[in-house]
UniProtKB/TrEMBL annotation, chain A:
UniProt keyword annotation of Iron-sulfur present: no
Localization annotation: Cell membrane
Keyword annotations of the record: Cell membrane, Membrane, Phosphotransferase system, Sugar transport, Transmembrane, Transmembrane helix, Transport
Protein name per UniProt: PTS mannose/fructose/sorbose transporter subunit IIC
Regions crossing the membrane: 45-63, 70-89, 95-120, 141-164, 184-204, 211-243
Topology within the bilayer: Multi-pass membrane protein
Region (Disordered): 252-272
Principal place of residence: membrane
Alphabetized InterPro entries for the sequence: GatZ_KbaZ_carbometab, PTS_IIC_man
Taxonomic superkingdom: Bacteria
UniProtKB/TrEMBL annotation, chain B:
Official protein name in the record: PTS system mannose/fructose/sorbose family transporter subunit IID
Organism of derivation: Bombilactobacillus thymidiniphilus
The keyword Chaperone is annotated on this UniProt entry: no
Record keywords, A-Z: Membrane, Transmembrane, Transmembrane helix
Classification via Pfam families: EIID-AGA
Transmembrane segments: 178-198, 260-278, 285-303
Keyword hit for Transmembrane: yes
Length: 272, 304
């Protein structure tokens, strides 16, 4: 099926939105059930694309960006498979083969995500320079550039598929070696350490290192959730403060502050 | 009570909330959500600070590392708004306090956001929408879009407001050493959480097999001697519960051995190594690219 110019432009805009949302994770334009349906809507293929979106959504329900890890790329999977379905012109009959290509595309999309997230590292360095000048406008500008980069991450591959057709896509995916994709996702697990190293360098002092050690050791107990760990951390901090203040004599008593700090949580709830 | 000469209005806070929808736009491997955090705060910082040096140092402190669940960043933004407001009005709040509060909150909050939004709300709303869509019902995507965004938008605005109110309370009482205590408490909490996060989120897994021992005849399940059908399955499960191995060989990987020392040790060593490199002024970008190369090479060599 041939698309006219307006349809192609609309598809690219949807791809751009999906790419943005793939990283923002807010309005959820990148979710298959929405992205596929929108592409179906503008290309006059609503029904098959809606069903494709629903089917892909079922597969993608558990995909989530957690911590620094990136989930398989729902944005590329839904946009590309919907375009392939529309171009194939088989209607509902083409859904299962479109899905077959969507899942490897989702994994391939990870590579693009890793690439863009690495490029964004350069962008925050430009932001650092802008911060030195106290230049708000420049930071706004580069944040928008970064978001657009995420949009292009999906819009460019979508444009390519529109130009070259679905066949070469399948062949290209066959070429991508698994050692590269697997290796890069292992690398993704390692680079998280850099961010933590920077904060620790900033916060560490002789006094607080033991708490780092306690946190590290307690985290090996897999049954403890992060909320649980947060509660332990908070309690330790309160205990430490209470004990060290007792040792210094009651120097914190002037000013009648106790009324205010007696039950801070209760106060907040009461006032809200 | 600080005499507030410059106060943030609801309009300012709404502007911050709107921008926080684009928090993850410049997500990067070095400092993650830092660009988005600074970007979100700009409407407030613009109002609070007029001198160039003040603006520069405010931007600099919010371009430090930050990462949490994108929706749970809102309460952190709220508290930060309150702290910045007081700082701009002359309260003695230093950078370590603000950083400590941010770091101390981000870990546990991510721990709330992931299970609540990604593993509860999304599967429920998404599953409902998907099943409608698969049946060809156009309400599927519409319901998903409306319900998801309604929940999300309300949550982000109200938790940001809650954080803002709680944050003002912290600094209302400047007599005594409450503020000093919060600074210290925040860095204790922050370091504790960082310790846990390094353990949980830095993933290093070594795959080489160090030993492959044939087990004693009584230590594993003899699959060929089980009864047929469901009865055999029952026997196998009972035997496994009794501690019998599923296979005739016990395979130990290097990772199993390292885990006997303490799980996550390799990730910790990697983090300490990165800290050392950073102190030697090695650029974080080089470290990041290097780690990707290391990941691919070690995978090809079958070490990871």
């Amino acid at each position: 099926m041939q698309l006219n110019l307006i349809q192609i432009i609309l598809v690219l805009i949807i791809a751009f939105l999906a790419g943005m949302e793939g990283i923002l994770d807010q309005f959820h334009f990148h979710q298959p059930v929405i992205a596929c349906t929108l592409i179906g809507l503008v290309t006059n293929n609503l029904m098959p694309c809606l069903i494709l979106g629903g089917t892909l959504e079922m597969i993608a329900l558990g995909w989530a960006n957690i911590g620094a890890a990136v989930a398989p790329d729902a944005a590329l999977a839904s946009v590309a498979s919907a375009i392939i379905l529309v171009l194939g012109g088989q209607g509902r009959a083409g859904i299962s083969s479109a899905i077959a290509i969507a899942v490897p595309l989702a994994v391939a999309g990870l590579l693009l995500t890793i690439l863009v997230r690495t490029l964004a590292t350069g962008i925050v360095h430009i932001m650092d320079a802008a911060a030195k000048e106290g230049n708000f406008k420049k930071i706004d500008f580069w944040q928008i550039v970064a978001i657009c980069m995420q949009g292009l991450r999906i819009a460019i591959p979508a444009g390519l598929i529109l130009i070259i057709g679905p066949k070469p896509v399948k062949e290209f995916l066959g070429l991508m070696p698994s050692w590269l994709t697997d290796g890069l996702s292992i690398g993704g697990g390692l680079v998280v350490a850099v961010g933590y190293a920077m904060v620790i360098n900033m916060m560490a002092s002789r006094e607080v290192w033991p708490f780092f050690a306690i946190g590290f050791v307690l985290a090996t107990i897999q049954d403890l959730t992060l909320i649980g760990l947060g509660a332990i951390g908070l309690s330790l901090a309160l205990l430490y403060l209470a004990l060290s203040n007792n040792n210094n004599g009651n120097s914190d008593d002037h000013g009648g502050g106790h009324a205010n700090i007696g039950d801070p949580v209760g106060d907040i709830i009461d006032d809200y | 009570m600080v005499d507030k000469k410059i106060a943030l209005t609801k309009k300012d806070r709404l502007a911050v909330w709107w921008r926080s929808n684009f928090l993850q736009g410049s997500w990067n491997y070095e400092r993650m959500q830092n660009g988005g955090f600074a970007f979100s705060l700009i409407p407030a910082l613009k109002k609070l600070y007029s001198k160039k040096e003040d603006r520069a140092s405010a931007l600099k402190r919010h371009l430090e590392f930050f990462n949490t669940h994108p929706y749970l960043a809102s309460p952190v933004l709220g508290v930060t708004l309150a702290l910045e407001e007081d700082k701009a009005n002359g309260a003695p709040i230093d950078e370590v306090t603000i950083q400590g509060v941010k770091v101390g909150m981000m870990g546990p909050f991510a721990g709330i956001g992931d299970p609540v939004f990604w593993f509860t709300v999304k599967p429920i709303v998404g599953g409902l929408a998907a099943s409608l869509a698969m049946a060809g019902n156009i309400m599927g995507p519409i319901i998903y879009f409306v319900v998801w965004n309604l929940i999300r938008i309300m949550f982000m605005w109200y938790t940001q407001e809650l954080g803002y109110k709680a944050g003002s309370k912290i600094t209302d009482n400047l007599s005594g050493n409450l503020l000093q205590n919060i600074t210290k408490g925040a860095s204790i909490m922050g370091m504790f959480i960082l310790g846990s996060l390094v353990n949980r989120w830095v993933t290093v897994k070594f795959t080489p097999v160090v030993s492959n021992v044939k087990l004693d005849g009584k230590a594993y399940i003899h699959w060929d001697q089980l009864a047929h059908g469901a009865k055999g399955i029952q026997q196998a499960l009972l035997q496994q519960k009794a501690g019998l191995s599923l296979t005739a060989h016990k395979v130990t990987t290097l990772q199993d051995n390292l885990d006997l020392l303490i799980p996550g040790l390799a990730g910790l060593l990697l983090t300490l190594f990165c800290m050392w490199l950073l102190k030697k002024k090695v650029s974080p970008i080089i470290i990041i690219l290097g780690l990707f190369v290391v990941g691919v090479v070690l995978h090809v060599l079958h070490v990871m």
